[in-house]
Amino acid sequence: MSEGLIELRGVSLAYRTASGPLPVLDDLSISVPEGGFTAFVGPSGCGKSTLTRLIAGLTKPDRGEVRLHGEPVRGPRPVVGMAFQNPVLLEWRTILRNVLLPLEITRTALSKREQEARARRLLALVGLEGFEEKRPSELSGGMRQRASLCRALIHQPEILILDEPFGALDAFTREDLWKLMHELKAEEPFTGVLITHDLREAVFLADEVVVLSGRPAKVQRRVPSGAAGRRDIEHLYTAESVALLNLLRREIEIAQGRAPAGSRAA
Q: What is the sign of the dihedral through the CA atoms of 86, 162, 202 and 256?
């Protein structure tokens, strides 16, 4: 396994339940290159979100290790930003103050004026200029998710973890935010880790798609997306993308036990 910014080496983890250990990850080894964008897909309950908690340092493996820049992860790291399906914005704070919240927790060399200027720049970048003093309830779901992305990026993280961030949005809003993610990555470079059930989302956003097996999860297959940099939605309708989506769909069926491994595409 080649070295990357993020490395998981032989990671295994089981949750403790009343009926005994529940294995979730089994000898999982994976590397995410610096500046890359890797999407993880797999059956429901296979441990995808657990994987993000390990990378973020919120959970420790039973065996193996997680490394960032070659150093073992032993707890939460300020170089990691996270965005989830539920934006979890605080209603009693304005959108600007919600975005600034991580800087109240994480050390920063920025002055208060510089912090606010950065927050306003990010909000303008995602199309929320003029909404800085609004409350979360005054924004649509898509707008709240845009604000959540700004909050995840405000402290300039090296790694951005996205755990089903667009799953609750309608199809058109979701596609708009997919395009926005490419713009954000160009303006605010980061190494991306995406957890998703949406194969189109994985193909559109990621440089590589990793298919996890059923629980306890192993790496079942790694598939390059065949594209790099910014993309248009039309990219999803090319012959290459359609073939890739079909390949990934079959891999998911194998992971779910609904298709034999012998039916795997080349």
A: negative
* pLDDT tens digits, 125-175: 999 999 999 999 999 999 999 999 999 999 999 999 999 888 878 888 889
Tokens at residue 128, please? Answer: 């929320």
Compute the residue count for the chain: 266
> In this structure, is residue 56 part of a structural domain?
yes
Q: Nearest 5°: CA angle at 223, between 145 and 199? A: 40
Which H/E stretch holds residue 180? Answer: helix 171-187
Residue 7: φ, ψ to 5°: -135, 135
> Strands 219-224 and 71-72: what pairing?
unpaired
| Range(s) of the domain holding residue 71 | 1-79+191-266
Question: Who's near 263: CB < 8 A, 6+ residues apart?
Answer: 250, 254
Sequence-separated (6 or more) residues with CB below 8 Å from residue 32: 4, 5, 6, 7, 38, 191, 193
CA-wise closest residue to 81 among 165, 198, 142: 165
The number of domains in the chain is 1
Q: Contact 192/114 with Cβ under 8 angstroms?
A: no
Q: Flag whether 9 is in a domain.
A: yes
Structure pTM? 0.89
